[in-house]
Amino acid sequence: MDPLKHLTQKQIDYCMECGLCTGSCPVSRELSNFSPRQMIKQVLLDLESDLMNGREIWACLSCAACSERCPVEIDFPEFISARRQQARDAGNVPQESHHGVLQTIAGLQTREVNQQRTYWAREAGVFADTGDVFYFVGCLPFFDVTFRYLNLSPLDTARSVLTLLNKMGVEPVISDHERCCGHDALWCGDHSTFRRLAELNLEVIRSSGAKTVVFSCPEGYVTFKKYYPQHVGELPFEVLHMTEFLSRELPNAGVSFQSSSNRTVTYHDPCRLGRLAGVYDPPRQLLESLPDTVLVEMERNRQYALCCGTSAWMECSSCSKAIQVERIEEAGQTGAQTLITACPKCQIHLSCARSAMDSDIEIIDLYAYLAMRLTTE
Amino acid sequence: MASDDQPQILAFVCNWCAYAGADLAGVSRIQYPTGVRLIRLMCTGRVNHGFLLKAFLKGADGLLVSG
Amino acid sequence: MRCKKVIEETREILRLLGIDERRLRLKWISASEGMVFAEEIHDFVQQLQTLGLNPLKTDADPILDLPEKKSS
To answer: Residue C58 is nearest to which of A111, A117, A145, comparing CB atoms?
Structure first.
């Protein structure tokens, strides 16, 4: 799993002469002592203990802006991930944000909990216990409580997804027994929690009989698609992101949308959906399919999109805030009235930064925006 | 002595109110179950979701927040 | 009052997780109310005995492993 293991001498030579990663890194611009290139050099020169004992290993956002441009194709997020567990085992732990509440919730979910997490779905639409399509809701019910102070309602995302699916004639499985996907545990170096959560989730999905699992959250999606097979083996079902599912199924589903007053929008690519999973077009197709809607791109978009500043609920700092402010200003410069996010965490982080800024750009989740634009009879 | 089946209670108490109250219970020799452990805070406003949930994760049977 | 809000929100999270919210109590006790404190603990212990021990407890949780418990 360690991407440095298979490097050729030529790749190493190129790497040592380069530095494109550090030049591309949003964290390096804010924290002068943070350098992906230096970290790789430390390991190649057998100075790994410096890396293991330092704070830098936790400062990486794993946003993959560096590896996107790396000429010798070193997967830097993978390089970091492979070392975080060792760092944690050695007692070097990350500074958890929000008092570690979300990591603790994930920890509790590894136990025999009897969750009651589908109350919102009973009010929002129709769902089932078994069926072909499983909607993996992710942490939204918990975010809805923990981020109430930002005047956000992350569950609107889930409600909107269910509304859209129901409109298309799909009654998805939504389960009370679903656990956290383990994304944060994995990136916090807590592999035992990650594996336990993965096993429990696979059991839940297997017992629902689903052939397709759809995700509105990019983190859940990439974790199932990329990291579950690596850690717990091949999955016996198809994994689809909701934007892929909708852009494929919506045009033939007879669902219509209406025009709206806030119609110039810009789209923020979540790093998990974009660079890590390669899904760039489906969300754009969805936005462009809406009547009278203009999608304007930010200066840095698609594979060059700026990260939302924090990952895996840890190490939130002035650096995170600076990145978020930069991103919101960039969105404002497009002239769009609305910034569309496709990841609950991007929405939370950018909304948090905006609350302290003089900016009137509205930050709306993609699915909530789509549901808002549905034609009302 | 705490027996194995006695509930373990973790109490988050304010230095100025409940901690002093618990202290008074002690000096007044009022009997109460021993399975309770106090965490003294300068104000119960210090309590957050993370503290409380972590206590359950670490095996507390009940939590008392008292100011 | 921040504390009250935190407690209410934590109760919501406990409900989502299926942990009995009666395991989390908030009680205002003043410095002169030693008796109230003792009664509250009595009452809470009684309630917890009917609810049973924390079902999510594992052997790997050492934090409440008190010294006197180890020696017994």
So the answer is: A111
